[in-house]
Every structure is written in C-alpha cells, then in structure tokens.
Amino acid sequence: MLLTWLGVLAALPALALQGPAAPVAVCVVSPRVEAVHEGDALGLVPTPRPQLVVIDPLLELRIERQGRLVWQQRAAAGKTFQAPLSWPLDPITPGEVVLLRLRPRQAPEGAFAHVQLVGASAQRMASTEALIRSLGQRPPAWLAAIETALDGGDVSLAWALLFSPQLPEARELMALRAEVVRRGCGD
Asked: Of 30, 50, 97, 124, which is least packed with CB atoms within 10 Å of its CB?
C-alpha cells in the first residue's frame, strides 16, 4: 500500500526561483509543501520542529520570523550543504508563519525560493507529538501510522512521521525514507 501512495505522490512540487537568471528548481520533500505561486510554496506543519529535507544542494538557507532574519546557514565558498537538517530554532508555535528562503547551487546571489511554514493548531501539534511518543521503537507501529496517515490523505503527518528524528533505524523504514527522497519531486 505504501508503494502505491509513493507512486501517487511522486510529483511533489518543484519550486521555481524568481530572479534575473533562468528559473532554478528546488525540491522540498519535508515538511510537505504545496506550490502556491511561482517561486513560492506553503506547508502546514503538524510538529513544532520539522525536519527539513531538501533534495537540491544548497548555497544558503535563511529562516525568517515576523519579517526578521533569525537564522542563516551559508555554504563555504565553492561548497554546498545538504539537507536533511534538524529544525535549528525554537519550535514553531501553533498558527505561526515562518518563511524559509532557499538558494540552491545554480541560483545567483539574492535569488531564493520561498517556503512558508504554518504551525498547525495546538491540538494537532499535541496529537502528533503524542502519536510519535506512543510509537516508541516499534517499526511496525511506525509503518502502520504512516500508512494510516496516507490512507487518510494526511501527507503532512505521514512525512512528519517518516522524517522524524525519533524514527527507528529499521531496514524497512529506512528503505521507505530513501525511496521518498529518491523520488523527490518527480519529473
């Protein structure tokens, strides 16, 4: 069943950069986001510390809260860095909007893809955290919870579980995570 869902979800959004150069694609796998405008995407996050999984090597990642830069990572000259990255700041609060600015390898200075992350309701965040705690180190329970979320159309929750730092390092879970990353945003 999970592989059936992976086939359906293979075409995750690729974000086009706006800038003076030709558009460059950025593939954000987690948290789950949807394209809302050229160069922009939006995602509801069911956990206060989402794991950032971006397929493309990055030159720069900026995080802004209330219009202010609160965190930035820049690659050394001639280098890039890869996600996944653990959430580097205080948790996202319910209803809070956080802006990620992503600049992949091919992007010129100052050109970014924009991803807005919106904290889910307090109730949803609490239930997600409770679910993660309840799954413990039982790989079958994690697989069942991911499948249940996908069956219910809750890809945000499924990906929050799949890319959770608490996910056990079981072969089948790591294979599923690797397959989602491999499929990325599709073609």
From this structure: 97
